[in-house]
């Protein structure tokens, strides 16, 4: 595995056996199990999956080693089959080529060779099962043979040495991958249509409330990729094809030379549970989506879907109407004043206010194909998620934390609320099932951005239950009916318990 990981770093990173198997597991996992994993592990779900793959492979390899002591051919065959499964996972990925074979084949050859070498060396140290009549000359010959051959200690040292070599190979491979994923400093031009001054948030006066803008390093990341792609910005391009008047392509430099728009927009993941953390707000800089589509000619298109494809073949579908209805849909190149971080889609990603990310936020985008939902299905559509998923009105309590212990006295209940495309009018708080009380609202950045809120609370000793709900500017009240994220986003009122002492 270690040698294969190093070779993958030199050839095709996604062909590393652990990543290839992990990606296949992601694709084959039923939706309910995926949702469970996200609920249990959050953004650590990828690390848990990769760790599980490594542990299972090590256990199976150990079993092959035990079998090989008595039946070497069977043990070696088991290792080859194990490596073959990883190779199959690598070569069946979208866009796989001949180089995807290299890491898996290397794993099979090196694993089988090392196992045979260890088995034969260990066999030379084993005592004979039937020593027969013992005489002095036999004892002398046996002692001479054992002094000439390897000892069991030598076998253990050899195994430890191989383990150290493997660790070195794996570490080197991972170091190379991390260096390859580093992006060069990219300086973006100023926006032709800037967002304007950003207000001061409540976080400076209400401790515990989520900041009005999410730092890029703290922005949530939910996607199917176990390894971030390596994208050469100099050779990257964005192509628009399908049911358009003409196919067009744009290099990164051509996109940055176009008039750029800057907007403060909140994004939400469809996997976000009631009161969840998979929501973030940032200042995005990019080219309006409509401007790009118009260059391809869409006047006579019969398409109703933008099928977006990333650099490794992942597909997302977006209703074409959202690019044309006046909202600030864009192909974003920048985030919070800098180029996009690699984990958030460098060199370009789609940003569409008001829709959950699984139908609007293709990262590492390289192609947009105008087509119909009847003709083409994207990754999540094939898994029966909704095709059009507007974000629901929602709110969250940030402080005090659920199940926390607080001292009696003057406290503050605070959090955030969002209703992209409509905006938040007010937030109400309920304490111990009593009447709803209106909270104090923070600054209103725009209708596509969340709002902070807080309510002063004189807390008496005891266990208290706190709930919040948001009311949008069009009068829509946050739904009380509980829904799971599948297939079009969760709903319900968050209620937490707090103990006051």
TrEMBL record:
Short name of one Pfam family: Oxidored_molyb
Keyword terms: Membrane, Transmembrane, Transmembrane helix
InterPro entries documented for this protein: Ig_E-set, OxRdtase_Mopterin-bd_dom, OxRdtase_Mopterin-bd_sf
Transmembrane segment boundaries: 47-67, 74-92, 98-119, 155-177
Domain Oxidoreductase molybdopterin-binding: 228-379
Entry keyword Nucleotidyltransferase: no
Keyword Amino-acid biosynthesis in record: no
Protein name: Molybdopterin-dependent oxidoreductase
Species name: Nocardioides malaquae
């Amino acid at each position: 595995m270690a040698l294969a990981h190093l070779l993958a770093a030199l050839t095709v990173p996604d062909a590393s056996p652990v990543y290839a198997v992990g990606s296949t597991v992601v694709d084959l996992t039923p939706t309910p199990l995926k949702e469970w994993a996200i609920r249990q592990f959050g953004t650590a779900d990828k690390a848990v999956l990769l760790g599980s793959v490594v542990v299972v492979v090590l256990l199976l390899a150990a079993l092959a080693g035990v079998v090989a002591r008595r039946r070497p051919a069977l043990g070696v065959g088991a290792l080859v089959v194990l490596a073959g499964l990883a190779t199959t996972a690598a070569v069946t990925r979208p866009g796989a080529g001949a180089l995807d074979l290299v890491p898996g084949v290397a794993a099979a050859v090196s694993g089988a060779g090392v196992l045979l070498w260890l088995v034969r060396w260990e066999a030379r140290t084993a005592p004979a099962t039937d020593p027969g009549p013992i005489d002095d000359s036999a004892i002398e010959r046996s002692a001479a043979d054992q002094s000439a051959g390897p000892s069991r200690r030598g076998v253990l040292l050899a195994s430890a040495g191989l383990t150290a070599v493997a660790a070195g190979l794996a570490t080197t491979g991972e170091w190379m991958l991390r260096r390859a994923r580093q992006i060069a400093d990219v300086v973006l031009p100023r926006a032709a249509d800037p967002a304007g001054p950003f207000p001061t948030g409540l976080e400076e006066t209400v401790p515990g409330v989520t900041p009005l803008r999410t730092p890029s390093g703290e922005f949530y990341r939910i996607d199917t990729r176990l390894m971030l792609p390596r994208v050469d910005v100099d050779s990257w391009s964005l192509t628009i094809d399908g049911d358009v008047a003409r196919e067009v392509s744009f290099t990164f430099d051509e996109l940055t030379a176009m008039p750029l728009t800057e907007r403060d927009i909140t994004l939400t993941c469809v996997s976000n549970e009631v009161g969840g953390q998979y929501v973030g707000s940032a200042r995005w800089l990019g080219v309006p989506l409509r401007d790009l589509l118009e260059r391809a000619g869409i006047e006579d298109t019969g398409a109703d879907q933008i099928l977006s494809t990333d650099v490794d073949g992942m597909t997302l579908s977006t209703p074409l109407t959202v690019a044309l209805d006046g909202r600030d849909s864009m192909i974003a190149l920048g985030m919070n004043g800098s180029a996009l971080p690699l984990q958030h889609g460098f060199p370009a990603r789609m940003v569409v206010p008001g829709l959950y990310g699984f139908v609007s936020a293709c990262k590492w985008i390289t192609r947009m194909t105008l087509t119909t939902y009847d003709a083409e299905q994207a990754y999540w559509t094939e898994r029966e998620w909704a095709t059009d998923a507007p974000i629901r009105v929602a709110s969250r309590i940030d402080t005090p934390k659920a199940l926390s212990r607080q001292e009696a006295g003057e406290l503050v209940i605070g959090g955030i609320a969002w209703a992209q495309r409509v905006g938040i009018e007010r937030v109400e708080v309920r304490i111990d099932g009593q009447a709803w009380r209106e909270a104090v609202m923070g600054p209103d950045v725009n209708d596509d951005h969340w709002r902070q809120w807080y309510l002063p609370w004189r807390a008496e000793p005891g266990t208290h239950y706190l709930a919040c709900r948001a009311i949008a500017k069009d009068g829509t009240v946050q739904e009380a009916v509980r829904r799971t994220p599948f297939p079009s986003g969760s709903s319900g009122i968050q209620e937490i318990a707090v103990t006051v002492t």
